[in-house]
Amino acid sequence: MSSDRLAPLDLAFWHLESAGHPMHLGALAFFSPGEGAPATPATGPELLELIAGRAAAIPRLRARVRDVLLPVGGAAWAPDPDFDVRHHVRHVPLAGTDFTARAVALAGHLMERPLERSRPLWETHLLTQGGDGPADGSFAVLAKFHHALADGMRATALGAGLLDGTAPAGPRPRTDPPAPPDPLTAPLRLAGRARDHAAALGRAALVGTAVLRAGRLGPPAHRALTAAPSGTRRIATAVLDLEDVRRVRKAAGGTANDILLTVVAGALRRWARERGEPLPAAGDPRALVPVSRHRPGDPPGSGNSLSGYLLELPTGEDDPGARLAAVRRTMDRNRAAGPLRGAGAVALLADRIPPLAHRYGTPFAGAAARLLFDVLVTTVPLPRGTLSLGGHPLTALHPLAPLARGQSLAVAMTPYDGQVYAGLVADGEAVPDLDRLAWSLGEELVELLDRTLA
Question: What is the pTM of this model?
């Protein structure tokens, strides 16, 4: 694979990272026996060899980041001459009876550790029960990908390459050579490029102005969301019934994502009350809701292509139906304006910043995230159909988002096989009761459904 430069947003995520703020995302996947599973469960070493072989066959997973002379401050992907897949794939046997709880706890500790920046920016951990794996064949896989390597959509495509029969498709080959440019149309092409560049600069100026206007002057009501960072990570998981989400949508309107955002708002409200925190009359926590800008046919290693919306989560509203109405109003306005406008589109500013400015300015700019939003809430889709690894069906997949500097909580959700699997990542000291917040998600969906159908 030839060297290729990091896109501006990839470069931004590369420079945002620090020892206490690792910029990787991930997923904790559970696999169990089921229909189609092999009669003899695979052992830990067999599964490890399977994962290693598939990972080594993905070109992007064999590339590392290296500095380049030009442009000054830039970086590029290049094949790692010392690539050894054994540095990236590890087997961790877990003792004890509650395998799921132990796997989730260990995943929290593993998410604390930054990836080795001198090597390809990913790793997987195969978690099994005891020695070579449980007698029934159940196991889990924690996958970590640096945000410079991929956003949620691209990480899903890369991770799919480890599964049975879902290797990501590469770039489509060109069948006919491109026609030579017509010299008579060269001035028109140049004028078109100038207009496109001017329009991009105009959008960047509008986004920059919106970011400045959207900066929070005071802290949100929920103190835990902006506690001083400790560098620790804690993970919790939740499972929601996708059919319940659909029933609420059918009765009350909105999108499935609107309902999930409302559930997160209600869970934060319930959690704050149990902690004895005052409910906000104003200053509701502000969520950044990422929006993918990838197009069908993009290669799996095409990097980050993101924008986002900002949403005040109505935790001060007592009625679940009113919370949903408030979320719908804001998200409808966001979608009508589109993902290229508003302060939530701050990621677009990366395209207008020269590489050298990314290297020296991005770490300082990252500190401003606290002024813009308080919690990340994202939904990541999976490929359709039943997924498996070594013939073992995927039974649960909890996505894990990184924490921006100054943030204490990120919530990621993935619909799959009739359920919505949530992964919550938090600063371990700021949110020691993360399990309770995760549990509140399910309680809130039930209450929202009951109130909607009443």
Answer: 0.86
